[in-house]
User: What shape does this take?
Amino acid sequence: MLNEHFETIATELKVAPRQVRATLELLDDGATVPFISRYRKERTGSLDEVTIASIRDRVHQLRQLDERRAAIFASLIERDLLTDELRHSIQDAASLSELEDRYLPYRPKRRTRAMIARERGLEPLADQLIAQENGLDPEGAARAFVDPENGVEDVAAALAGARDIVAESVNESSEARTEIRTLFEKRSTLRTSVIAGKEAEGAAYRDYFAWSEPITKAPAHRIHAILRAEREGILRLTVRPEEDAALAKLSRRFVRSRNRASSHIAEAVADGYKRLMAPSIENEVRTQLIEKADREAVRVFADNLRHLLLAPPLGEKRVLAIDPGYRTGCKVVCLDAQGILLTHTVVYIAGSEQERTRAGQSILDLIRDYAIEAIAIGNGTASRETESLVRSLAIPSTISIVVVSESGASVYSASEIARKEFPDQDVTVRGAVSIGRRLMDPLAELVKIDPKSIGVGQYQHDVDQGLLKRSLDDVIEQCVNAVGVDVNTASAPLLSHVSGLGPKLAENIVAHRLDAGPYRTRGQIKKVPRLGPKAFEQAAGFLRIRDGDDPLDASAVHPESYAIVRRMAKDLNCTVEDLMHRQDLRASIDMNRYVTDAVGLPTLTDILEELAKPGRDPRETFEPFSFDDGVHEMKDLSPGMKLPGLVTNVVDFGAFVDIGVHQDGLVHISQLADRFVEHPSTVVKVGQQVRVTVLDVDLERRRIGLSMKTQPDS
Assistant: This one.
């Protein structure tokens, strides 16, 4: 079956079977997606991470199909039901639904009405009805099967039992189920109705109290909202096509004449559809609908997380971070350029003018004493008041003042990771440290937090949690390895996402660093306990050693390719450092001289690009941002105002934007651009700085409508 899987996946993804085979061989050998896409381009034909992950996921599905097929064969053999014809039918099933359809007539089941009818000897009568011969008298034929002692009281009972057998055969026809399933998938309407007496309790879902929509047009966020309401007992939901259309298709298939026998078949077809087939296929289609909505929601979440993780870092700067607060004060911490906590204190901004003055002076003293280069202010309670105070101080213009998202900081501060990092500090200090580090390097700090706590995505608690975790783990792994990790400064949580590593090896790397001092070469990483050759191969290219003994260790050039670089330098009679600093030397290299069976032009091209910008960070340059000075609360807003904002979340129906009033506004998809927008993610991304116009403000419901369209001059 594996060769067939190569062909199937290759056709679906529009790649060559050999690329699929090579990718699966590497994956089965323990290689990671980032490693394969970066360092095994010759093997895969330069497939990217998305395609490699798709191959991995699709072969997993196909292998699950194979496992189910094997279990079915085992069941059929055990019950002595497997014929050559059935074997071929089961073997040829290309999907799980098709496989289950073909197995359905042979599946062990509890006693059904049809089974009981067969036990009472009514199957020959059913066969006569199915033949639909013109001369058949159904009532006359049924008299021969009346047997009160066997449960067949009269002619009506005999015919009813025969129809039960026909109804079950209609339901178990794989061809009929395929036809009706297609009808369900293409023509079903999603219909909702409110459960009597639940109107007040379900007020939040009132838009869906009497909703109908073709399932082919229902967006993911609406499906999840309706499903949540159904789980909460507010709504009833059906997902079916028009009944007449389904019965017409089944009648054309099973009702072959116009006689008295055919009328019984038509009745049995209707019963088989309503009682057996429709509920079964509706459940299947609902499952497909949920899976589709989950995939879309997970895609949106993953896309948002990717942009959040790859947000521009401030870099290694000395930072003063403030976690604002009213009654309990503002927790202030000072961090060195590596994010190490230097000191912490509390200042109060909500009291008297004298307290505010003392708070301002304390901040100025800290800036002076710790040579602060940037200030990070959390965007929670009292954020704008704290920002106003800080901006009113005589702070050098070279010091950036940045409002930073607090989403997830409280989760981190109470986590096991935070307790290990700061065992002697309380949660308020840990939270402030997280805010400061998030400004310095969002990726390094956010990997410590469960992505579901970061505040991006939609209905993340309603979707398939396994699918969500796999997708988000992929995103984190891709982002961490795309940026690279400084092995001498990285935390264990960050290192754990490096290709080939994991929590235990990451902890061992940090422990070895603390015991033996900073790593001077990548080769020294091999001395880490339990880090074997395979893990080193997978991880080495993504680990950086700055200012080490070998300049290549600070680059993404893999150690397995160092010999090639040194040969290039030797051929040009220069050093590796010369190659890295001089474009003219790199331009003179004839790459064809270095092509081997294992190393081709894709790898050589990557090597030269990396030599030009060793260890380059793919993230954009940090740009400071500030909210409008005159806007602090919702009551300060009025329609027509044009304000700066930060995109905090992108969902199917629009984007949420923080404009500095402690309540994000919504830019509906129809207001994102002057042109038609298919999906918000094509226009904006999480963390993007935008300019918006206030459309409306609902203080009671705390809703803000915004627009990014070009507005006419007032």
Summary: The longest strand covers residues 642-651.
